[in-house]
Amino acid sequence: MPKKELKIYTRTGDKGRTALIGGTRVPKYSLQIEAYGTVDELNSFIGLLRDQDIDHHVKKILGHVQVILFNIESHLAADSAESLKGLPQVAEDDILTLENEIDSMNDNLPALRHFILPGGHILVSHCHVARTVCRRAERIIVHLAAEREVDALILKYVNRLSDYLFVLARKLAKDHGAEEIQWKPK
């Protein structure tokens, strides 16, 4: 029996409301929608970065990041604890993977002694855009967590991901012979 295809348009959001996982309808401007929408935006920027000319290992890590971000989106889109049942979880191992990658990249980078301006190479710039979207997602999720329960591992993962993206930007600069642009206040 063929699987039922997901319909792209439903017309149910035409008046500015959308359904959460579990069926509750909320305004499209709700903080919950803003949270998972911003994580979706981040996921798209990670995909853009992953599509660039970068080494296979980094592509693999970014692919894993995209899966975890989709898992996070599903959690942020759930309307109740009941709706969370069966959704994939963010695990401490996911955070440990990012930390190990950060440490490994840092071992091969010069010591950081200045603030760095985004830019220097298109890959570095893509990475910094993803990092800043990640920081925005984190701020929105923290705000959401003040209003409803959010798994602490989600906050931890998103926080660590922005650190990973910063260090990855430095690695990509080094890999492509780009000079890191130091911030020199005037």
| Distinct helical segment count | 6
Using only C-alpha atoms, the radius of gyration works out to 18 Å
Helix content: 55-70%
Query: What is the tally of beta strands?
Result: 4
Oligomer class:
single chain
Order of helices and strands: EEHHHHEHHE
Spatial separation of the terminal alpha carbons: 68 Å
The side-by-side strand order for the widest beta sheet comes to 1-2
Mean of all residue-level pLDDT scores: 90
Proportion of β residues? Answer: 5-15%
Shape: elongated
Uncertain segments are none
Computed structural class: mainly alpha
Largest sheet: 2 strands, antiparallel
Give the topology.
Blueprint: E1 17-19, E2 25-27, H1 31-50, H2 56-76, H3 81-84, H4 92-106, E3 116-117, H5 122-147, H6 152-175, E4 181-182
Antiparallel strand pairs: 1-2, 3-4
Structure report:
There is one protein chain. The chain has 186 residues and is mainly α. It is built from six helices and four strands. It has helices spanning 31-50, 56-76, 81-84, 92-106, 122-147, 152-175, and strands spanning 17-19, 25-27, 116-117, 181-182. A two-stranded antiparallel ribbon has the order 1-2. It has a two-stranded antiparallel sheet with strand order 3-4. The radius of gyration is 18 Å and the shape is elongated.
